Amino acid sequence: MKKSKILQRVFWIILLALAWQLIFWSGRFSPLVFPSLSEIAQALIESLINGELSRQLLFSLSIIGQALFISLLLALFLSLTAHFSENIAGLIDTLVALAHPLPGIALMPLILIWSGAGRQAILVIIVHSVLWPMVLNLRTGFSSIPEIYRLVGQNYGLSRLQILFQIMVPAALPYFLAGLKIGWARAWRALISAEMLFGAVNSVGGLGWYIFQKRVFFDLPGVFAGITVIVIIGILVEDFIFDKIKNKTVQKWGMES
After folding, report:
1. Per-residue b or e along 68-81, where b marks 16 or more CB atoms closer than 10 Å to that residue's CB
2. Which of the 8 DSSP states describes residue 67?
């Protein structure tokens, strides 16, 4: 991540925090519904020290990691299969058109009936939310690869599998990363919604459950502490993981215009 981008990010965060505190000091809203930054920070530190937030954060991250891995494998399989078979491509395009606009929360009643309110149900909702945008991006990526790339690979005597993993997958990497970023954001939304509805699994809940519990007890600083953790993780993953992967691959290989 470039230093200028970090400074810009810090500047705007400080400015937004200052605006928040000014609104609190103005007394326009009750402190019960609009807590100060110090109250939010205190709630955040207390939850981290007593381990409550850490356990729930690890639980949420483990489910998201598992769901992203499953979605990635399925998306690669479906996209590559569609690329090599026109008949299957029609089926997969139809499935994407049907399932992509369908929010995971709309499937919750069915998933509750079919699999109960456990970890598996949350996984299904996240995979549904992440899979289709990934397939869409990968299909676009594979379709945009010039035919000459494949012909060059054949001239070098590469097998079909080598052309696939040494030419096609790297050539579609910008679309793959874009799909992964969309999937990451959608996974968080699906996870928080599912955890708020399904609650804890085997007495263990995630960040969504943490926020829900704080809301039930009208602990607004605690609610904002949970939201703050989600925002911080989002920024860290976006700026330091995705940007780093992009710099070491897409930009380094000159694939970004």
Report:
1. bebbbeebeebbbe
2. H
Short-list 108, 100, 102, CA closest to 124: 108
Q: Which alpha helices (H) appear in 27-51, and where do they start and end?
A: 37-49
Whether the CB-CB separation of 223 and 211 falls below 8 Å is answered with yes
In eight-state DSSP terms, residue 231 is H
**Dist CA 93 CA 139 (whole Å):** 9
Phi, psi of 111 (to 5 degrees): -65, -35
- By the 8 A CB rule, do 80 and 92 touch? no
Going residue by residue through the chain, which has 257 residues, state the pLDDT in tens, using 9 for 90 and above. 667 778 888 899 999 999 999 999 998 888 888 999 999 999 999 988 888 888 888 888 898 899 999 999 999 899 888 888 888 888 988 998 998 888 877 887 888 788 777 778 888 888 998 899 889 988 888 888 888 888 888 888 888 778 888 888 888 888 888 888 888 888 888 888 888 877 666 566 788 888 888 888 888 999 999 999 999 988 888 888 888 887 777 777 766 65
Alpha-carbon distance of 239 to 226, in angstroms, equals 20
Domains in the chain and their CATH numbers?
38-253 (1.10.3720.10)
Q: Are 173 and 250 in contact (CB under 8 A)?
A: yes
